[in-house]
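Hi V.,

You were right to ask for the full record rather than a summary. Here it is.
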Amino acid sequence: MARRLPPLYALRAFEAAARHASFTRAAEELAITQSAVSRHIRTLEEHFGCRLFERSGRHLRLSENAHLLLPGVTEGFDALERACNVLSTDDATLRLKAPSTLTMRWLLARLSRFRLLNADIEVQLTSAWMDVDKVDFHQEPFDCAVLLSSGGVFPAEWESVELFAEWLIPVCAPEATVDGPWDLARLQAAELLHPTPDRRDWRRWLQAMSLDEQVLLRGGQVFDTLELGIVAAARGYGVSIGDLVMVAEDVAQGRLGLPWPSAVASGDSYHLVWPKGRRGEERLCRLRDYLLAEVEQMRMPAVERIAR
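Predicted structure:
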């Protein structure tokens, strides 16, 4: 069945005029004349049999009918733009989404080296704070993403590979460990820093260590990212929970201390994911292989590892 739609150029003029509340500014954006915008709006008004704009002095206002029309038109143009971007993206560019702490602590430096080794591939990294890591490849302009996930269960239309598991471990300022690991009394007296508002990371670690009834979680500064908790701990404000992989280099270089050198598996892992059949899969595979090799080459702190 043929779609009974008004001309696309008229809808485009309407959307621009409505967004700017001005025929003049809409004309500038579309590189046409103001009279052309007016003609396009008249075409729509004749098509729908109603007025779309009302003038009050020098001001342009949307009519009630225009308010009903605008959201769907805007959504439609957004969808068209996303669809066109899939094919218009430069084949030499990978658009990657990743959590903010992973970006700062591990990924950014490795992508810099990846670019040096792969001059024909540009990686455009978007770092995003995500309480629950997620990506929508239909709605967001990304070719791939790194996500923290429990079990690595993803949609059937995605490819995925596990990069590394998350191991939770307490971290503090390096000078706080010059006398060696802490005992229980010192941990009980310490200011606990919480990198998650629900304190789940400390809770997981304490439960795995059978310390949840001996170390209270009340009080302490609460942050919304692992990164902020780690930075506060490094500056001597207390002891936070970190991820073993993401603190390894700071521990090795003396910027962080491990007051209780026991790491607990959270049950989550970081995965590189991408849609099946997406253009540029050869580039994605090169990035995948590079990141896996980087994980293999890492020198980890010598700590006890405890599976939950």
